[in-house]
Specification:
By secondary structure, the chain is α/β, with parallel strands linked by helices. It is built from ten helices and nine strands. Strands 1-9-8-7-6-4-5-3-2 form a nine-stranded mixed β-sheet, with helices on both faces.
Length: about 300
């Protein structure tokens, strides 16, 4: 890391923007109660198999996000493809600057979901690139997980080259941090923007354990299976503990106090653990709608172009 004076700040977004639209959040499948019953009845009899089955359930997106209507930004995207392992991933590109901003979407979303940031960034001379992660959008695959998704982010960075900064949302934020902190060659960034990013994989998994009402024996096997697959303890896949492995000059955390999906405390925990980081707080814009707030979009663009503190 460069010798940059340590800073930690909390900033409240000043905005007059009002958005009363409801957030579209995928609900639980209608058969959830039957799935819960199955784990409760058969899980204790076959805990290893049930633990693997639970992992597959958690790593299979319930929906493929799509756009109900097109718009000018979607229409102006230049589409491309790149290979990640044996999967073909779909990419989108705007602008033609020599500095690139990479957009990374969250779980059950798609790359173009972050397109609201595109106009202000290309106006500042940046090239902006997004992609559909594995098992998302128009990309290949049926399942993915944080480590796998992180590998796709590394592949995207190699594909587009000269990445100046990354803007990532939710699961994409946690995957981005893992990608940056576990790269064989350091990936140097000027700025990193993490929007509504969960800080602890253990807490995410525990939430899923509660969702499926897994018996204790099955939950134990789920964690064992995950750690064997990832070749590392679950607690090692933690945003809070990654800072010393990053080559990022400055970070902006963005989180809504009333986020119904990722607790606001997640970003507070990251702010406590990281240096050279600012927490931008919104209230009443949820998990997705905050990315449609023009004042927030302008603030993110300002952060990216501003000199490092």
């Amino acid at each position: 890391m460069n010798a940059i004076p340590s800073t930690k700040r909390v900033e409240i977004l000043e905005t007059s923007h009002i958005d009363k639209t409801s957030e579209s959040i995928a609900g639980n499948p209608p058969v959830l109660k039957l799935i819960q019953l199955g784990f409760q009845v058969f899980g204790p009899l076959f805990p290893k198999y049930a633990g693997k089955l639970a992992f597959q359930f958690f790593t299979t997106p319930r929906v493929r996000a799509h756009h109900k209507a097109s718009d000018e930004i979607l229409e102006s995207a230049r589409m491309f493809e790149f290979l990640y392992g044996k999967q073909i991933l779909k990419g989108y590109e705007w602008g033609s600057g020599d500095r690139t901003i990479l957009l990374v979407h969250g779980w059950e979303s798609r790359g173009t979901a972050l397109r609201t940031f595109v106009p202000s960034l290309i106006k500042q001379g940046f090239r902006v690139v997004a992609f559909d992660g594995p098992a998302h959008g128009n990309s290949g695959g049926k399942r993915t997980n944080l480590v796998h998704f992180a590998g796709a982010i590394q592949a995207a960075i190699r594909q587009v080259g000269n990445v100046h900064s990354i803007i990532a949302h939710s699961f994409g934020g946690a995957s981005t941090v893992f990608a940056l902190s576990n790269s064989s060659k350091p990936i140097e960034l000027e700025k990193l923007v993490l929007i509504a990013t969960p800080s602890s994989m253990r807490k995410v998994m525990q939430k899923n354990v509660q969702l499926l009402k897994l018996p204790k024996s099955v939950a134990i096997e789920l964690f064992k299976y995950t750690e064997n697959l990832f070749q590392r303890p679950v607690d090692a896949v933690d945003v809070r503990h990654a800072y010393e492995k990053l080559s990022v000059k400055e970070t902006l955390l963005v989180h809504d106090r009333l986020d119904p999906m990722v607790p606001f405390q997640s970003s507070e925990a990251v702010l406590d653990a990281w240096e050279n980081t600012t927490l931008l707080v919104t209230e009443g814009f949820g998990h997705y709608r905050l990315m449609k707030n023009p004042d927030l979009i302008d603030r993110v663009a300002q952060f990216i172009i501003s000199p490092v503190i």
